[in-house]
What we know:
Layout: E1 7-14, E2 21-25, E3 32-41, E4 47-48, H1 52-58, E5 59-63, E6 69-70, E7 75-76, E8 79-82, E9 103-107, E10 114-124, E11 132-138, E12 147-148, E13 159-164, E14 175-178, E15 182-186, E16 189-199, E17 207-210, E18 217-221, E19 227-233, E20 240-245, E21 251-256, E22 263-271, E23 279-280, E24 283-288, E25 294-302, E26 307-312
Parallel strand pairs: 2-13
Antiparallel strand pairs: 1-3, 3-4, 3-10, 5-6, 5-11, 7-8, 8-10, 9-10, 11-12, 11-13, 14-16, 15-16, 16-22, 17-24, 18-19, 18-23, 19-22, 20-21, 24-25, 25-26
Amino acid sequence: MSKLFENVTSLDVNLSSSSNQAVVYANGLNQVAININFIVTDKYDNQVMLTDEQIRQCVFVGDYNLGTVLFPGQSSDGWVASTEPGDFITTGDLNTSLRAGDTYTKELTDSSDRYQGITYYMSCNEYHAYSRTFCGFISPDNLNTYVTSAHGTQFDNGVVLTPLPEISYDYSELTFLHTEPASSEYGQHHVEQVDYYVSLPSGSIKKGEVDLSYNQLYYIQHYSSTEDRYQACFNVGEEATWTLTLPDGTRIPVEYNKRAGQQSLVCLKVTNGASLYALDQGCRSTIYDAYGNHGHLEFVTQNSGSTIKLYNA
Length: 313
């Protein structure tokens, strides 16, 4: 196998921010973006521009103190380097236009050279009460030879990541509120809607997903000869409208997710609905904060479908 290049004239590792240190929650989901920048040349000192595929094959994250490589997807004391960005990246100033495992090329100020690089996403799934420092590795020949920025080397530099214990949210720590009833008329039907919202004590819910075994509409009761009751739960997301279709074909638009960063449920009372069947399968949801810490929730129907209570799932 011929070498991709002969010399490395620059090798730098950074966090896309002004600091070389960051924290990461040890939940396996929170990620910190590590950028590895480099310049390589041929034997005549002419810069060699590697292809995207070549960069992925020859540039890796390593342990700064041990001088060892962390191959993508392999765990090292709970630390995993990935080319796949997840939903919970917390490093500031991240180039969000990059796709999974993307490489990049940038001009250098006052220089004819351009540095190339790749972004890895580092996560931790085991909590340890100590930090770990990561460096860069680059090899022209499948690691038969390599250059690293590990401790004591020519390009000595690294970034320090400190794990934090994972947070599991208890329902008692969350805020669970409901609005006053709002009324509307659709033909012969009078509709009363109460919105319920789950929110974190600080910050927004980054992601909240209803259990896949449930539909949005999880409760129907033919409460009386003139009133039906419905309850529905929705994934956290943008404000939208869901349509409840009654047995007589009347379509009732139901707005939800009217509060950004909170999980939305609705409780409906509909007159003259004449529901043809009952449904009471309960509802469970998993919510995540901006760092991938989560809570498993269960919403329980009470008072014959007129109220909703929150518990741990």
